[in-house]
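Hi R.,

Here's the chain you asked about this morning:
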Amino acid sequence: MGVMSDGSLAAGQAALGAGRWMEARNAFEAVLAQRESAEASAGLGAALCLLYERTGSLAAPVCFHVLHNGLMLAIVSSHPELAT
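And here is the predicted structure, written out as tokens:
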């Protein structure tokens, strides 16, 4: 599990550096789905910042943030063992 997380983290950082925010977001979310990670949380925040810069509006990152939190809540609600 750690190797996959580290690979996803590196992939997210590379995608973010190349300006591919959607790919970066997916990679950072993959890490966060497996374990808490300050690096992945920061990367996800950077991807949302890049989305804001691309769209010029806070609506897109805010909508994504709401969607992300809703999905995480649904996953934890249906699988309580993941909450620990």
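One quick note: DSSP finds four helices and no strands in the chain.

Cheers,
M.
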